[in-house]
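Posting this for the archive.
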Amino acid sequence: MVMEDGILITGYNLLIDQSSMSGESAPISIYEGRPFLLSGTKVQDGSAKMLVTTVGMKTEWGKLMDRLADTVEDETPLQVELSCYHYWEDRLAFVLLTFIVLTVGVLVEKVLLHELMKWSSSYAMTLLNYLVTAVTIIVVAVPEGLLLAVALSLAFAMKS
């Protein structure tokens, strides 16, 4: 195990497993053209002498551990969205406006055809599709609701 960061001085057939640092599963060959050794990595094969450049929390491994230890409990995107109540009011107003505009379009069509009192199931399905569209807008507005929006869309698609 390499315990500090350093630069290769001399070595023979040095293979380093850097999966703990970079996620790279294949061992990396260290030679004069690529002389950097990082702490937290494992020597798989070979031998070497190196010039130590940093130790302790100043190494790349130490910096990584420090960053992981300093994680602050940030709000999730959903919590941020829910904390902005006025933002939800804007979305709800947009959804209602969308549904009203689409419904008025159907009503204008019925008036122009002089069929305001004649309603068929196709118009009911059209209004239901407009309602689904409006609900989908508000669900998709929050990225976490995308799965729900897809599930609703698939459910209505299977029903039709």
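Strands lie at 5-17, 28-30, 36-37, 42-54. The domain at 5-69 is CATH 2.70.150.10 (Calcium-transporting ATPase, cytoplasmic transduction domain A).
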